[in-house]
């Protein structure tokens, strides 16, 4: 689990990022989860946007993605999810 201090640090790092993935009306699928996992390995910190035509609860979407990828939900703000997963090969972010 991430501490409050670590989440604050990651939120500040994620502020300037743009969402890379979009969850639409079809929801989260296996292909999307694989792509998110690959991207997390490369970047460690990403944003995902939930589109207006997705009627699932955003917390459920965030938890589903996080549990399937092994990532941590840093923040859910509006329709944007911030995820963090420590990279094994490309570690760049040093948590406080």
TrEMBL record:
One of its GO terms (molecular function) is RNA binding. The keyword RNA-binding applies. Gene3D superfamilies: YhbY-like (3.30.110.60). Residues 1-96 form the CRM domain. PROSITE patterns: CRM. It comes from Pontibacillus halophilus JSM 076056 = DSM 19796. Keywords: RNA-binding. This is RNA-binding protein. Pfam families: CRS1_YhbY (PF01985).
């Amino acid at each position: 689990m991430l501490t409050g201090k670590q989440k604050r640090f990651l939120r500040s790092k994620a502020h300037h990022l743009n969402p890379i993935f979009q969850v639409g009306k079809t929801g989260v699928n296996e292909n999307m989860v694989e792509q998110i996992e690959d991207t997390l390995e490369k970047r460690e910190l990403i944003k995902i946007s939930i589109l207006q035509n997705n009627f699932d609860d955003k917390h459920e979407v965030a938890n589903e993605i996080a549990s399937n990828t092994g990532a941590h939900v840093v923040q859910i703000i509006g329709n944007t999810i911030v995820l963090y997963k420590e990279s094994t090969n490309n570690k760049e972010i040093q948590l406080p």
